[in-house]
Amino acid sequence: MGHNGAGKSTMINTICGLIPKNAGTARVGGFNIDENLRSIRKRMGVVSQFDVLWDELTGIEHMHLFQTIKRVEMTNFDEFVNERLGDVGLKESGNLNVGKYSGGMRRRISLALSTMGNPNVILMDEPTTGMDPVSRRHAWSLIQSLKNDTAIILSTHAMEEAEVLSDKLLILDNGNIVCVGTPMQLKSAFGDGYRISMITDKYKTIETKNLMRILVPDCNFLETSGDSGGMVFTISMSKIDQLGPIFAIMEGSAESNTDIKLSDKQKKAMV
Fold it and tell me: Fewer beta carbons below 10 Å: N end or C end of the chain?
């Protein structure tokens, strides 16, 4: 992860040999990128930031083309194509020219193409950009299943995606790795806690703030969204146990939920 210009795409493009490095080196699967790039590419899949596709070809024809380019020998190739297109939700669109695909569909076929030949390593540069929520979940499921046998380096702007997919998270800044850890480790060490977003009647913002101070004593008001009645509060990681009353209100179960211990003041506020 990292801000725009942090070096995510540059790092991926350097590892796969698309742009030359100016210092240092890297090894992929035991091979040095300076000496064995051809061997590395045989064992590598890539989802580049910009899709490498031909509008005149169908999704299935792309699969055959990449099979030829990577010199992949498969006895059950047609079965593999059907399975992989199904994994990314394109089984019904396999015979459609890619030029008619939406942006999200193009990302999905690129993701499917990166798995050609069962590579040992796959580099993915923001693979779910432009996908709708349902398609993104399909992509996440495929990536999760690939992790069993494949090392995946993935860049993303979405913390939610990083949390779902990452075993280890690296933060880049100007090409330098500034911290490494699991998503939970980094959130615990550097995060400011959780954000609570809500929408209320714009004439009841003061009343809502007072209610939040009673229900969640250690929350802090962060901002409001103009005249829409939107409000954002924050609470530190160490105080998240105070969120119980909020969830109880949402579920309508405060009175019956014996795990939530409320003070008389909180009970009165909830009423």
Answer: C
